[in-house]
């Protein structure tokens, strides 16, 4: 299984998976199977479960454990599975993390706790978490201030890169400018520090620009994973403009899906319409689509199909 | 047991209890017993467990269940126990709430979810929660924007008072001015709406002023509960100035304990020094006291003892 | 001049203008002229000055007055000029607003003050501002929680629509879902309240979807105003899909320009490259582009030109 | 005048002054005179004007200039006057700062701009401001995250202490725990860096504890400055417990006045009742006291008078 662990050299598309629910709000394991098959058919490199998009905070621990087990069994070593492990308590985080790794997880996705402010506070939090997880558990740092309000400086990232070999991946989704990527890459290119894997989030909203700056792929939940895969493949094959062209076709619906909060409902609904899951319900409190929202999505999906010649 | 349920006419001091841990971080049931005895000896009316002060978010569900069971058995119907039930997922909230009520809880303390902004959003959240809990489960609304960032208007509270008979208590701890209390009381005094119980939080920092404005007591975690009890007793006996005099003696240490975040460590340490618990550790991430912080507390406790003639 | 006042029936594109500076940081009136000519050539309906994009908070009052006078004289009644008037003090807001109207402004753009939370607080603020401005000064409500943190409910907007005839326009740029537009339009369509003008912000990121939901145009600072104009023109001519097609061509660079904070530097730099202003400097504190950022913009602009057949 | 400049060795009480207004909202220069006399009679070391308490953001630049000139002339070199100079634009900040220094100010009080997050961002902001002000203008860093949301680490403060000799004073009012003071003092005591002046804010809520940790006095707006002066005098004379005793007498009203936002109205009203100013009005938007709030203040002031044997 260890060949499946995420590492500094991980490249490709790790799709972030929602947790499918039935109409009456239960975790839907049948839809989990079809969703995993869907992702497989679209060519993703790996799958990330139990993140914000997976509504992890609204599952019971038993549900999370059952879902995790089910996914691990279904995938059965054919693909790396990254598991979201953010938790307000570090004991709980470590316990769940160890359990996920025992089940065969490829690594963990963890976001810093809301409320951390200074560089010192952020570093100290990660120092505790990464130390307690130990050097053998690879971690992806979810750098997403839009929901955590935690803004991580390049300097903190560099300290963590230098001090903790298990910090192997950054999920880059800070929203203003892409220079964080360039600064990280310039340092490792200059031999001044370890080069880690950087995958991009934010639905992939800036994917081509981020690839040009040196990222290794995407870890995000866009409901058309084949675009993410296609763009990365073309880019890594040197077909940069073709990668951009493909991206542009999907951008109108991507930017629609990317609306904060509301986007989760849209994403699940697209997956439902595409046959990946049976029901697009989210758990309370969660966004719901109105009839007008559905009509809007009809129009956007129809335009995408037309562009794709469908 | 139902004579113990909180209601619109609840009056007195509900002390908010921390969760004691052993030096190696386990829930300390022996200290739980001594702590409950301590509270009993100080004359509190009831006890609130598993709130923010109780580090509920850092317990496993199993630990929370064990702690709840242990407290219920130890108290054995002699005092009402209010149980914190805030949760990012409403299904989880309702499930835990029902379990707590089955175990004999007197009611629930619930804070609105971070991220709610407009009156409409806040009302809709409570509408869902209060409806799903049903009319038989009494709820205390923790109105604490300092941690939730949710600011609840008097108008939303009034709508909830009118629409949901199970909204029986407000834990008032919005920090700027006390007119919210007066506005709520003026309405019910004028016969325009139901009068609910209002207990104050914030460590009791404004307790005498809040009593003068018509609150029914306190629900907070000050480590000298005898002060809260004494002030309320004197006030309700008409000895208003004597109530203020008693309050003033404790105010220097109260305002020290009231520091946001850091205060939890101080509070547990005072309880330890007073013999109520064996260890003042908090779980990670949580505040820690330095040697200098301990010295500061020595000085403040010594001054209090001197004033009390000890 | 009053034919130029904004009103409930205003329709079209009001471009939000930056304030051009010289290399040494002075307000650049020569570039102001070329910029106004540029906007005129692109066919905008009106121009909005001294907003956030105009770095109004970093001008001296004298500079703001000189810039305002200069713009009014240059435009000379050929186009309506909306003036940003947000201010921490209401006296200052009203004084500046009156001065702007005397100079011939078409109306004011005002955002609610940061720190307002509840519906009651937000309504009370606007009640004071709209009352003090008086019924003859038309106001555009900048509804932009991404910078103000103030989230305005549909219910507050409806109360303001009913109570203040000078509230004539909403600049819609709340970021999550577009149902606010639909709810406002459904009410006025049902004859339950006044129909006001709604122009969209956010760089136009959702312009086609917002037009389909009933907005009247855009008030935003996208550096290719001809796209905004073209999309609105086509849409209002009934060529909905053609409007979307045109929009999609510009979307990659639009979403790049839309990055919070950083976007101001990109926008000014595009305007410089297009010959509209001489220098793209922003005042401190403000974003700056690195060499790598410039290269990224080269690539995006080249791709746009290629799509446009240039 | 330069003997009056604030410096690393400044000690004592710098009272923060409100800006008095007349009933019709004008700056009240007659009340400014009586207020300055009041502060003088209470024995303050210096006076700080045009801060948040001074409603600086709601004055016109002309009003601020007139008020500054008036204060400087009235005080006429008998006391150091620190001038608030925070500004969203650095050009404006520097221009106003230079003007204030030319008029004889003892130094500037500046808070970091809201929106700064990482250590790097905060340092870079101050680097720009302190460089542009130049080494001859002494600056007090207002470290007040309760309003700015900017949390400054000890590490950033130390870098600024090392790099900028004009950073001579810290106004300490970060609210959670006092270890920042101890860490700064430990470093300079160990000879590892310059010792700067630290004055405390927050109304003086933790003044005795902060003095014990090594601060040099207070810079805050408590409406009974004689307490701040008396506590500091006693403390520096070695009468530590007497200093605490004096503090405790005023603590009930201090903690009342310290309520965020609302406190400004209380403070001005106490000053009015004490004869220091003629009118307690604040400018819109600003807090107002209800009849019930006035009654509450009556009670608190009566209790204070009783304790003082008045």
TrEMBL record, chains A, B, C, D:
Any one Gene Ontology molecular-function term assigned to this protein's record: 4-hydroxy-tetrahydrodipicolinate synthase activity
Binding-site positions, pyruvate: 219
Taxonomic superkingdom: Bacteria
UniProt xrefs under InterPro entries: Aldolase_TIM (IPR013785), DapA-like (IPR002220)
GO cellular component, one term: cytosol
Keywords: Lyase
Keyword ATP-binding assigned: no
CDD domains recorded: DHDPS-like
Recorded family membership: Belongs to the DapA family.
PANTHER family linked to this entry: 4-HYDROXY-2-OXOGLUTARATE ALDOLASE, MITOCHONDRIAL, DIHYDRODIPICOLINATE SYNTHASE
Protein name as it appears in the record: Dihydrodipicolinate synthase family protein
Taxonomic lineage: Bacteria, Pseudomonadati, Pseudomonadota, Alphaproteobacteria, Hyphomicrobiales
